[in-house]
């Protein structure tokens, strides 16, 4: 019989002991100085303008802190992460360097967990099934699930209990959305549908507005959303009463639009009188994501900017959305890390339009004054932003 697991949810009482190594690994005095100088740094022909909110969010700060505490607290035990703690290769590499193992690594495929093992749950949480597996194995758990993710789960669980299908604006393959969707299945009749964007929302809304689908359209719907619906999902039945929520890191304007589309579809199908009984919506974008998106909107509205650099993992949802916002206004380069700035002329970045990595030339104007806007995703530490600043200074000087 497995022993019941110990779960740490509020740290491991070693905050002060790990503060030094965390500062050494992720902090930047230079970035602090730029913030203190009004988020502006000028040298020669170059001006760097930082967004007023960027980088590590409260959830990531806490998750990384707890991971280091766990390593310190259990020096003689195997400490695992269920996967990437956050979507930043630099941070994940640093954790590997501390001796923390990743259950998603191929080498761990045969690893059988037991009561002597410590497992850290990431900021975006794990599925109900995964949690049951880990508790069943009797592992000691360090749960870093962010409070803002727990808030989404609370809403989705309530939808399920009250008979509403959860419509989640998110990426069905993203760890957070998979974990959120699993919460909808805790109620016996719970169901979910994940929609990626307005286009997918429009497909579902047309289905709702049109009433019960023909066998052909029903089959097309099930085919299109095959990876994004709960087992046994029947669009004729399970789209009649919906509650909208979202992955915490989506583009907030799009989440609002998706909610509005479902509201209108339900109203069109069932009439105004039925709306309250058949539709609910909660904006579950986290405040850190919202603040970072608002900050780039403000930066681009208030300051003349020639180009934007957005730093963060390509698989980081919140970083990709920052790049989307910027790309609507100015040339934008989403770099995974400082290595993306290959030289004063060449840059390796993720194109917002093609969503793939490309290498571009001539990204930094060769002469005249140049104003570069800078932001970073919630999983990018300030020391990486500092490296980008130093490279920018160097390259602007090289080209002048
Ligand atoms: S992005 Fe938001 S939800 Fe995710 S860890 Fe950060 S604060 Fe929490």
Keywords, separated by commas or semicolons:
single chain, 400 residues, alpha/beta, five-stranded parallel sheet, five-stranded mixed sheet, 44% helix, binds iron/sulfur cluster
Task: Give me a quick take on this structure.
The protein is of the alpha/beta class. Helices cover 44% and strands 17% of the residues. Helix 1 (15-26) packs across helix 3 (58-73), helix 11 packs across helix 12 and helix 13 (287-302) packs parallel to helix 14 (317-327).
List the helices and strands and how they pair.
Layout: E1 7-8, H1 15-26, H2 29-36, E2 40-43, E3 46-50, H3 58-73, E4 79-81, H4 89-97, E5 101-102, E6 118-121, H5 128-136, E7 140-143, H6 147-161, E8 165-169, H7 175-184, E9 192-195, H8 198-210, H9 215-224, H10 235-238, E10 242-246, H11 252-270, H12 272-278, E11 279-281, H13 287-302, E12 307-311, H14 317-327, E13 332-335, E14 346-350, E15 357-361, E16 370-376, H15 382-399
Parallel strand pairs: 1-7, 3-16, 4-5, 4-6, 6-7, 8-9, 8-10, 10-11, 12-13, 12-16
Antiparallel strand pairs: 2-3, 14-15
Helix pairs in contact: 1-3, 6-7, 8-11, 11-12, 13-14
The structure holds iron/sulfur cluster.
Residues 57-60, 123, 146, 148-149, 248-249, 286, 288-289, 318, 378 line the site of iron/sulfur cluster.
